[in-house]
Amino acid sequence: MTEPYKRILLKLSGEALLGEQGHGIDASMLAYFADEIKEVHEKGVQISIVIGGGNIFRGVRGATAGMDRVQGDYMGMLATMINSMALQDALERKGVFTRLMSAIRMEAIAEPFIRRRAIRHLEKGRVIIFGAGTGNPYFTTDTAASLRAIEIEADVILKGTRVDGIYDSDPEKNSNAVKFDEIHGDEVLNRRLSVMDLTAFTLCRDNKTPIIVFDMNQKGNLMKVVHKDSSIGTTVVWDKK
What we know:
By secondary structure, the chain is of the alpha/beta class. It is 37% helix and 19% strand. It has a single domain, classed as Acetylglutamate kinase-like (Carbamate kinase, 3-Layer(aba) Sandwich), CATH 3.40.1160.10. The strands form 2 sheets. It has a 9-stranded mixed sheet, with helices on both faces. The chain has a two-stranded antiparallel ribbon with strand order 7-8. Strand 1, helix 1 (27-41) and strand 2 (46-51) form a beta-alpha-beta unit.
Protein backbone atom coordinates (compact mmCIF):
# COMPACT_ATOMS: atom_id res chain seq x y z
CA MET A 1 0.00 0.00 0.00
CA THR A 2 1.09 3.56 -0.67
CA GLU A 3 1.51 6.25 2.00
CA PRO A 4 -1.95 7.02 3.41
CA TYR A 5 -3.69 10.36 3.54
CA LYS A 6 -2.66 12.25 6.64
CA ARG A 7 -6.02 13.88 7.43
CA ILE A 8 -9.42 12.83 6.11
CA LEU A 9 -13.05 13.77 6.47
CA LEU A 10 -15.37 10.77 6.27
CA LYS A 11 -18.96 11.52 5.25
CA LEU A 12 -21.52 8.88 6.18
CA SER A 13 -25.24 8.88 5.51
CA GLY A 14 -27.64 8.40 8.38
CA GLU A 15 -29.45 5.77 6.31
CA ALA A 16 -26.32 3.63 6.48
CA LEU A 17 -27.03 3.05 10.18
CA LEU A 18 -30.40 1.49 9.39
CA GLY A 19 -28.86 -1.83 8.46
CA GLU A 20 -31.73 -4.26 7.97
CA GLN A 21 -34.08 -2.17 10.07
CA GLY A 22 -36.78 0.15 8.80
CA HIS A 23 -35.83 2.97 11.14
CA GLY A 24 -33.44 3.94 13.92
CA ILE A 25 -29.93 2.60 14.48
CA ASP A 26 -28.79 -0.96 13.87
CA ALA A 27 -26.25 -1.79 16.61
CA SER A 28 -24.36 -4.17 14.31
CA MET A 29 -23.87 -1.45 11.68
CA LEU A 30 -22.70 0.96 14.34
CA ALA A 31 -20.14 -1.57 15.57
CA TYR A 32 -19.03 -2.30 12.00
CA PHE A 33 -18.37 1.37 11.24
CA ALA A 34 -16.54 1.77 14.54
CA ASP A 35 -14.28 -1.19 13.70
CA GLU A 36 -13.48 0.17 10.24
CA ILE A 37 -12.70 3.63 11.60
CA LYS A 38 -10.61 2.26 14.48
CA GLU A 39 -8.47 0.21 12.08
CA VAL A 40 -7.62 3.31 10.05
CA HIS A 41 -7.10 5.43 13.16
CA GLU A 42 -4.54 2.96 14.46
CA LYS A 43 -2.45 3.64 11.36
CA GLY A 44 -2.01 7.24 12.54
CA VAL A 45 -4.51 8.82 10.14
CA GLN A 46 -6.27 11.93 11.48
CA ILE A 47 -10.00 11.29 11.11
CA SER A 48 -12.99 13.61 11.21
CA ILE A 49 -16.53 12.46 10.52
CA VAL A 50 -19.83 13.99 9.45
CA ILE A 51 -22.91 11.76 9.58
CA GLY A 52 -26.40 12.52 8.32
CA GLY A 53 -29.68 12.01 10.16
CA GLY A 54 -31.93 10.40 7.54
CA ASN A 55 -32.43 7.21 9.51
CA ILE A 56 -34.15 9.19 12.25
CA PHE A 57 -35.74 12.12 10.47
CA ARG A 58 -37.00 10.13 7.49
CA GLY A 59 -39.56 8.45 9.74
CA VAL A 60 -40.87 11.82 10.85
CA ARG A 61 -41.04 13.37 7.41
CA GLY A 62 -44.34 11.81 6.33
CA ALA A 63 -46.06 12.91 9.52
CA THR A 64 -44.72 16.43 9.23
CA ALA A 65 -45.83 17.26 5.69
CA GLY A 66 -46.34 20.98 5.39
CA MET A 67 -44.01 21.78 8.28
CA ASP A 68 -42.00 24.99 8.07
CA ARG A 69 -38.72 24.26 6.25
CA VAL A 70 -36.56 25.97 8.86
CA GLN A 71 -38.19 24.02 11.68
CA GLY A 72 -37.75 20.78 9.76
CA ASP A 73 -34.07 21.50 9.08
CA TYR A 74 -33.38 22.11 12.75
CA MET A 75 -35.04 18.79 13.53
CA GLY A 76 -32.69 17.20 11.01
CA MET A 77 -29.71 18.77 12.78
CA LEU A 78 -30.86 17.21 16.05
CA ALA A 79 -31.11 13.85 14.28
CA THR A 80 -27.45 14.15 13.21
CA MET A 81 -26.52 14.74 16.85
CA ILE A 82 -28.27 11.53 17.91
CA ASN A 83 -26.31 9.57 15.30
CA SER A 84 -23.08 11.38 16.20
CA MET A 85 -23.50 10.51 19.87
CA ALA A 86 -24.19 6.88 18.99
CA LEU A 87 -21.07 6.67 16.83
CA GLN A 88 -19.01 8.40 19.51
CA ASP A 89 -20.14 5.84 22.07
CA ALA A 90 -19.38 2.94 19.71
CA LEU A 91 -15.86 4.26 19.05
CA GLU A 92 -15.07 4.93 22.69
CA ARG A 93 -16.23 1.47 23.71
CA LYS A 94 -13.54 0.21 21.34
CA GLY A 95 -10.89 2.39 22.94
CA VAL A 96 -10.82 5.24 20.42
CA PHE A 97 -10.60 8.72 21.95
CA THR A 98 -13.13 11.05 20.35
CA ARG A 99 -14.53 14.55 20.50
CA LEU A 100 -18.03 15.50 19.42
CA MET A 101 -18.26 19.08 18.17
CA SER A 102 -21.61 20.70 17.45
CA ALA A 103 -22.45 23.63 15.20
CA ILE A 104 -25.30 24.42 17.63
CA ARG A 105 -24.34 24.98 21.23
CA MET A 106 -25.17 21.89 23.34
CA GLU A 107 -22.62 22.16 26.16
CA ALA A 108 -24.00 19.19 28.09
CA ILE A 109 -23.20 16.72 25.31
CA ALA A 110 -20.75 18.32 22.86
CA GLU A 111 -18.10 20.97 22.44
CA PRO A 112 -18.92 23.99 20.27
CA PHE A 113 -17.14 23.89 16.91
CA ILE A 114 -13.97 25.98 17.07
CA ARG A 115 -11.65 25.49 14.13
CA ARG A 116 -8.34 25.74 15.97
CA ARG A 117 -9.54 23.43 18.72
CA ALA A 118 -10.72 20.89 16.14
CA ILE A 119 -7.32 20.86 14.45
CA ARG A 120 -5.61 20.48 17.83
CA HIS A 121 -7.81 17.47 18.66
CA LEU A 122 -6.79 15.85 15.37
CA GLU A 123 -3.11 16.52 16.05
CA LYS A 124 -3.52 14.83 19.44
CA GLY A 125 -4.90 11.72 17.77
CA ARG A 126 -8.57 12.13 18.62
CA VAL A 127 -11.32 11.26 16.16
CA ILE A 128 -13.64 14.24 15.71
CA ILE A 129 -17.33 13.91 14.91
CA PHE A 130 -18.95 17.09 13.60
CA GLY A 131 -22.65 17.23 14.47
CA ALA A 132 -25.61 19.52 13.72
CA GLY A 133 -24.58 20.24 10.13
CA THR A 134 -23.49 23.81 9.56
CA GLY A 135 -25.86 25.02 12.28
CA ASN A 136 -27.99 26.75 9.65
CA PRO A 137 -31.18 25.70 7.86
CA TYR A 138 -31.19 25.16 4.08
CA PHE A 139 -27.78 23.44 4.15
CA THR A 140 -27.28 19.69 3.91
CA THR A 141 -24.81 17.50 5.76
CA ASP A 142 -22.92 17.18 2.46
CA THR A 143 -22.36 20.94 2.63
CA ALA A 144 -21.34 20.62 6.28
CA ALA A 145 -18.83 17.93 5.29
CA SER A 146 -17.34 20.10 2.56
CA LEU A 147 -17.16 23.14 4.83
CA ARG A 148 -15.54 21.30 7.73
CA ALA A 149 -13.08 19.53 5.44
CA ILE A 150 -11.93 22.87 4.06
CA GLU A 151 -11.76 24.48 7.50
CA ILE A 152 -9.58 21.73 9.00
CA GLU A 153 -7.52 21.43 5.79
CA ALA A 154 -8.37 17.78 5.19
CA ASP A 155 -6.50 16.08 2.35
CA VAL A 156 -9.66 14.51 0.98
CA ILE A 157 -13.38 13.95 1.55
CA LEU A 158 -14.29 10.26 1.62
CA LYS A 159 -17.98 9.79 0.93
CA GLY A 160 -18.98 6.34 2.12
CA THR A 161 -22.12 5.09 0.39
CA ARG A 162 -23.77 1.79 -0.53
CA VAL A 163 -22.62 2.22 -4.16
CA ASP A 164 -19.01 1.50 -5.17
CA GLY A 165 -18.40 4.78 -6.99
CA ILE A 166 -19.80 7.28 -9.49
CA TYR A 167 -21.63 5.96 -12.56
CA ASP A 168 -22.90 7.61 -15.73
CA SER A 169 -26.43 6.65 -14.58
CA ASP A 170 -28.03 5.10 -11.51
CA PRO A 171 -26.55 1.56 -11.24
CA GLU A 172 -29.48 0.48 -9.06
CA LYS A 173 -31.85 1.24 -11.95
CA ASN A 174 -29.63 0.64 -14.98
CA SER A 175 -27.62 -2.60 -15.10
CA ASN A 176 -25.57 -1.17 -17.99
CA ALA A 177 -24.38 1.87 -16.05
CA VAL A 178 -20.65 2.56 -16.49
CA LYS A 179 -18.46 3.32 -13.47
CA PHE A 180 -15.77 6.00 -13.52
CA ASP A 181 -12.45 5.31 -11.78
CA GLU A 182 -11.66 9.02 -11.92
CA ILE A 183 -13.67 11.98 -13.15
CA HIS A 184 -13.07 15.70 -13.35
CA GLY A 185 -15.41 17.84 -11.27
CA ASP A 186 -16.48 19.83 -14.31
CA GLU A 187 -17.65 16.64 -16.01
CA VAL A 188 -19.69 15.75 -12.93
CA LEU A 189 -21.42 19.11 -13.20
CA ASN A 190 -21.88 18.89 -16.97
CA ARG A 191 -23.38 15.40 -16.74
CA ARG A 192 -25.46 16.41 -13.71
CA LEU A 193 -24.28 13.34 -11.84
CA SER A 194 -25.49 12.96 -8.28
CA VAL A 195 -22.43 13.11 -6.03
CA MET A 196 -23.17 15.90 -3.57
CA ASP A 197 -25.58 18.78 -3.58
CA LEU A 198 -24.46 21.77 -5.67
CA THR A 199 -23.48 23.96 -2.72
CA ALA A 200 -21.24 21.25 -1.26
CA PHE A 201 -19.74 20.43 -4.63
CA THR A 202 -19.04 24.08 -5.43
CA LEU A 203 -17.21 24.50 -2.13
CA CYS A 204 -14.97 21.57 -3.04
CA ARG A 205 -14.39 22.95 -6.53
CA ASP A 206 -13.46 26.41 -5.30
CA ASN A 207 -11.00 24.97 -2.80
CA LYS A 208 -9.71 22.11 -4.98
CA THR A 209 -10.71 19.53 -2.37
CA PRO A 210 -10.73 16.01 -3.87
CA ILE A 211 -13.69 13.70 -3.22
CA ILE A 212 -13.69 9.91 -3.26
CA VAL A 213 -17.02 8.10 -3.44
CA PHE A 214 -16.79 4.45 -2.36
CA ASP A 215 -18.75 1.54 -0.91
CA MET A 216 -18.39 1.82 2.87
CA ASN A 217 -20.35 -1.39 3.41
CA GLN A 218 -17.55 -3.50 1.94
CA LYS A 219 -15.20 -4.52 4.76
CA GLY A 220 -11.68 -3.12 4.35
CA ASN A 221 -12.62 -0.53 1.71
CA LEU A 222 -12.03 2.43 4.03
CA MET A 223 -8.49 1.28 4.71
CA LYS A 224 -7.83 0.78 0.99
CA VAL A 225 -9.21 4.20 0.08
CA VAL A 226 -7.13 5.88 2.78
CA HIS A 227 -4.06 4.19 1.29
CA LYS A 228 -4.97 5.58 -2.14
CA ASP A 229 -5.95 2.28 -3.77
CA SER A 230 -7.26 3.53 -7.12
CA SER A 231 -9.24 0.34 -7.71
CA ILE A 232 -11.70 1.34 -4.97
CA GLY A 233 -14.41 3.91 -5.63
CA THR A 234 -14.30 6.97 -7.88
CA THR A 235 -12.07 9.99 -7.35
CA VAL A 236 -13.33 13.45 -8.27
CA VAL A 237 -10.35 15.60 -9.28
CA TRP A 238 -10.15 19.32 -10.08
CA ASP A 239 -6.86 19.80 -11.89
CA LYS A 240 -6.55 19.17 -15.61
CA LYS A 241 -3.97 16.57 -16.61
